[in-house]
Structure formats: structure tokens, C-alpha cells
């Protein structure tokens, strides 16, 4: 098994939900997640998802990290918001995300993916979502992502995605973060 479902609050309404927010590995065990600016940016993405009535998936690396997503992020998700907490055992969490989208009636054609590390888990999960469903659209808000391994993660991420033919179905949302030193986008 590639993942373990920790908690699931399924959607029971009739309205069409706009997208699913996937927060990747914002856990204290990752140096990139310890950056305060990143936690604040991810918290803002969660607030925006809650305001938009979008489900939130907290995707967590386990067992090595043992600590869940920072409380300051997970506490922002009210009890009425569709929600899932998943433990994954490999970099690509896309199988877990798609499984809970089906089980929880979350949108599975449009995702926003943020968190750490852009060159590994964010990249692998995004590519997995794009490969598994030809209709999927993924947005990566650059200001809400970080990487402890790469000085310019966006250039390497875009290059890897271009090599796999996936760039056209993924958009990078412009934003400022200390790591990307300004707005970065793929043209």
C-alpha cells in the first residue's frame, strides 16, 4: 500500500466544488517547511480554499517524518470543509489524492498543489496527477512552495515537466517568495 488514510470528511452537498487544494509535506521534519514565509503562504492558500468551498487534502510523508502538518495550517480548516489527511510512503502522492477524491467526492479534474519540496514530492505528485488523467489541470502557486535542495526550483521543475510533455497542463501562478526572488512563470 502506497498511502494510509488518516482522516476523511467527505463532501455531502450537491454544488459543484471548484478545485481540490493539495498541501504537500508541510511538516516540521522538512527544512523547507520550517520557513515561516512558506507556512504563512500555505496558510493563505488554505484560507482561500476554505472561502471558495474547495476541499483540502493534507498529504504527509510517513513514517520518516512522524510529525503531521503544522497545526497553524491544519487548524484553519473548519469542520464543515471537506477535508482529508493522508500519509504517503513515496514522493508521488497522486494515487492517494485521486483515491480520496473518489471516496470523498472531491473535484478530481482541477488541483492546486503547494508545499515542499518542489523538486521531489510537489513535482512527483503533480506529474502523477497529470499522467493519470488527461483532463486534469494543476496550478502550482510559486509563492506557496519551497525546496531545500535547489536554488531555483522553478526552472528545474519546468524543465522536468517539459521533458515529460506535461507543461501544457500545468500552470505556475506568479508570486513572490524569498526563495524564487520574485515572480517566475513559464511562457
Question: Describe it for me?
Answer:
This protein is α/β, with parallel strands linked by helices and 187 residues long. The protein has one domain: Rossmann fold (3-Layer(aba) Sandwich), CATH 3.40.50.850. Helices cover 29% and strands 22% of the residues. The chain contains five helices and eight strands. Strands 1, 2, 3, 4, 5, 6, 7 and 8 form an eight-stranded mixed β-sheet that branches. Helix 1 links the parallel strand 2 and strand 3. The longest helix has 16 residues. The chain is globular, with a radius of gyration of 15 Å. The termini are far apart. The C terminus is likely disordered.
Strand percentage, roughly? 15-25%
Unreliable residue runs:
180-187
Largest sheet: 8 strands, mixed
CATH class, please?
Alpha Beta
| Helix content percent band | 25-40%
Number of domains: 1
CATH fold field value:
Rossmann fold
Quantity of strands, as a count: 8
Q: For the terminal residues, how far apart are their CA atoms?
A: 38 Å
SSE order: EEHEHEHEHEEHE
Q: Structural class of the helix and strand makeup?
A: alpha/beta
Mean pLDDT metric: 80
Instruction: Look at the structure and name the CATH superfamily.
Output: Isochorismatase-like
C-alpha Rg, in Å? 15 Å
How many separate helices?
5
Question: Do you know the CATH architecture?
Answer: 3-Layer(aba) Sandwich
By oligomeric state, this entry counts as single chain
Shape from CA axes?
Answer: globular
